[in-house]
Design goal:
- The chain is mainly α.
- The protein contains 7 helices and no strands.
């Protein structure tokens, strides 16, 4: 629900996910040392919020983050007026954006699955002090 708040949901949701995970953990004292639950919870909250940044841009035409502000400025430079009529006037653009998010998520999933051996090999590299 925090991710629905424009221009602030990303940071707040990450901190709330971290605090919630720490609260329900059996070993909260290990948080802050690289505990996987303390890393995974804020990252999953971060990924859940990213697609919500475009919601205020597509409906009322307001930027939900600095990134969407730049994107909206680019739309206006090309004569595309963001707002509620964006879906009616430029459906190819809107569905292209939605499709690019799905394609991007699938590509990230495939890259992460196939690069697991490389990540494991990088973890075996000894640290120098």
């Amino acid at each position: 629900m925090i991710g629905l708040i424009p221009a602030g949901g990303l940071t707040v949701s990450s901190f709330l996910a971290y605090m919630a995970e720490k609260r329900v953990s059996n070993h909260p004292e290990t948080f802050g040392t690289g505990e996987i639950a303390g890393v995974a919870a804020p990252e999953s909250a971060n990924n859940a919020v990213l697609d919500q940044r475009l919601r205020p841009a597509s409906r009322p035409g307001r930027a939900g983050s600095p990134t969407t502000a730049v994107m909206l400025a680019g739309f206006m430079m090309w004569g595309i007026r963001p707002g509620p009529l964006l879906f009616k006037n430029n459906p190819d653009l809107v569905w292209g954006l939605i499709a690019s998010m799905y394609v991007g998520n699938v590509l990230l999933l495939l890259m992460n699955i196939f690069l697991i051996p490389l990540f494991v090999a990088m973890l075996r590299i000894p640290m120098r002090s």
